[in-house]
Amino acid sequence: PKDIVTPKAIAVAKTAKPEVTAAIVNMLGRVADPAALPFVTEALGNADPTVRQAAAQSITAFGVDNGVKALVAKLAAATEKADIDALKYALSWQQSDAFAATAAAAIPQATKQGKIALAEVLASRKAVAQSAPVFDMLAGDADEAKAALKALEVLAVPADTQKVLDFMLKTESASLRKG
Q1: How many CA atoms lie within 13 A of 55 on its CB side?
Q2: How much is the average pLDDT of 16-25?
């Protein structure tokens, strides 16, 4: 029964080697016992990248209202490429409207790397309804603006053409005008 196995698994994972902890995190994700969510969420910040990746892959089993919000928050704060890649991969499987809205809402407060990654995830999911914060990224630095333009290739609709053209006419960066 979950009420016995989950607490014991968590107790073992807290003192185990990273490979064992990662395996336990994966198992907890397959079971998706709500009692394991705090531990799996905490594992997103583990010092070991193997554990963080296991948590990123497992936490989506807990649903949009739980796991996905935690993943989006971690991606918004992420700065390391390995973490960003693992989090983007885990989020790439989320297709609900709630997921896209959660990801879009995280963009304004995200790190530079987080903003870029969230825009890429929204574009990969073709979340057209969530393009507003990606448009706002055009006001950021050159890297953010370039990532926004790339994402807007997918997210912008015909009615957005004027906004994109206005940006292109205002920018002094030749590399941004080239796309």
Answers
A1: 30
A2: 97
